[in-house]
Amino acid sequence: MDTTHRSAPATTPDPDSDGDTAAPHRPRRIALELLVHGVGGTTPAEMLDDPRVVRVTGDDTAAIYRRTVDADAEERPPDPREGAPEEPVREAYVWCNLTSGNGSRALWLILLPFMVANLAHWMRPAAPRGHPAQRIYDVLVRILALTLTVLLAAGACEVALDLIAWQCAGSHACSADRSWLGFLNTAHDGWWSLPGRRLVVAATMPLLLVGLLWWLSHRTWSAYESASPPPRRPGPSRDTPPSERPTLCLDGFWYGRRVVARLRSAHAAAGLLTIATALLLTAHDADAGTGADGVLRWTGYALAALVAVLAVLSAVIVCRTARSEAEPDVETDRPIVRWLPWAALGALALTALHTAWARSGWTSSGHLPGESTFAVIAVLQGALVIGLLLTAAVLQKAARGTERTAAGGLAGASVALLACALGGVLTGGVAQRAADWLDRGATPGDPHAPMAGPPVLLSWQASVIPVLLILVLVLVVVAAFQVLAVRRRVLPDIPGLYEDEEKPDAQRARRIAGTIARAGLTDRAPLLIGVITAATFVLGTGAVLGAHLTGLPPGRALDDAPVFVDAIAETAQALGSWLMGAGVVLLLAMGRRAYKDQSARRTIGILWDVGTFWPRAAHPFAPPCYAERAVPDLTWRMATWTETHDGRLVLSGHSQGSVLAAAAVWQLDPVTRSRVALLTYGSPLERLYGRWFPAFFGPSALTGLHREMDAWRNLWRFTDPIGGPVRLTCEDGAVIDRGPLRDPLVFGRTLQHPLPAQILGHGDYQADPLFDATRAELLAHLAPGVPPQPGGPAAEREAAPGAPPAAPQGSAGRSSA
Prior knowledge:
By secondary structure, the chain is mainly α. Helix content is 53%, strand content 5%.
């Protein structure tokens, strides 16, 4: 593929030019189709259907390409045949390297809980702007995100400080044949074998983890999210009052540098202070047990006060760090914010020196002090989720016209709980696997084991995982029966979509009906997630209560129960522990494969395509927001091209590319927007984003978008599991949705199609004849003085074999659900 670095010629057009062939050297007013791909990415050659492409502008991360023959399209003379139809010049915006580029993206897998928590921030209901509960909701999400950072740091401390340095290195039975623990082994009676010094050495592991998260957040912001918006003020048309402008129209929505920097400082400090707290608790317990002198005790109290002050300061910064979206936030933070992580690092260094001080008679046994930390974090997260549920209910009550909102407006709270569960599985799974490796598979709580093992709460949490998986399996079976029921209901309507079929193939009809039924499962996702999160909350609460009331792992706590109950408890504990560890191993294996294999990295990149569209407003360690680079890219291209060449532009977005396209259109100034049409297909704008993010893509926001630009059409299919209709009608009565399109285009074998046509589902919308007809209609709308071509869009729509068929009766619920 030719990716030579060339720039398309940019010349100032003559507005009086009419395309006269007598002046072929003068630039022409042409039309441009700017293609934006969807999830998973593709190559520019595939998008442009030509192996020879040239990069017009951009870099290796994201760029715009053309066919080589179209590189100088603006300078070519017009077609000498008067009235000859002319196809628009096609450009492809390729942004897949923002999420699936080099191998470092594999490190992003450990950031999955943070990404999910960040999504919860954007899922608040669409209450009127300025509603007091909105700020409460945002603050609760940011505090919950902070607890995830503390949980991850506490999990690293559990493995490094408790299991390795405190339990294993302090037990000759565990460390005897582990040479890498030799200098920490108490049997050697070396300088580093004292408990406090062992802990200080082990603290480097969680310290490096926090440093890695801080570095990734800083590096990814500089690489992917620092694109500035065009130097013009986006504004609404005269039909939209400023108070009703959608949030995505605001100038600073896609540039929140200071927000990420402030949250990064606070979260890094919180992680460092978590390590310092673990050391301080251990030193305090030793001072109380060994009767240390007053100097050590008062030093510990002073350090505890310092850590507490810095922790409160971190929490205050998190609570007060709200997004400023009216203008790009380019101001510099106050010194107290910039220096907070360094102050926390200094407090950690002083704490390490205090802990390493020699204390006579200090030995390590049992669990590290502070075992209840995980229970405290779990209770706090549960309280925050309940607060989110109540706040979201208030916001949803104040919202209007959001009947299709996912989970009745409570999706944000459900997703926040899933983030907590993912964080618990990640930290608990690492601790369980590390304990099994160190104690050679001994059962947690066994008095004959070489070490005490992980905290009791982690064993209880592991024991509920099999129950949750059984529930998920039941839901999958129910979904499978629903698919079969929908397929039976749709099946009789399938042959009627193809009137030219005399003897329809029953097997072919079943395949099409099954595709439609499976595509409809997307609309049931809110119910599935709601049931899973409710069960997770109940089971998690039971695990916390069981650990608190018994103080023993499930297998030992139920020793006095009937034999079958005890056997079930032991089996659940062992199986859950294995599943938690297997999940972590699978995550690491996926990361290792993605690091080496481009195709695997692109597959994982699909997850980031969906989850990292939104800016990092709640958690700074989440994977970077690619839209903060892609949206300015598209806005810059549309604004500069229409201004330079005075042409018409169709922004053509597929799948996730349609979401980027809509966000870019919102950022255009009114003059540029008047020269741009929007063509979306396979679009999740209403079906997914409108339901899950109603405050930003709900009915009022999408209505505002089509009011700003009536040159918008949307193509969709029943067989598409992602895309769907936007359910809007223009003010002049024109319908934005065109569909459902036939899929497949033909039912059986014909003279024109001797082989069976493929069921396209979510892909290849350009293969439908209605695509070209709709694009021509949009171009004609942008130039009302140009007469439509013979057999114009309306006629083409009627004649095209891909014309929208009547909706199958069995799919009526899909259209209006």
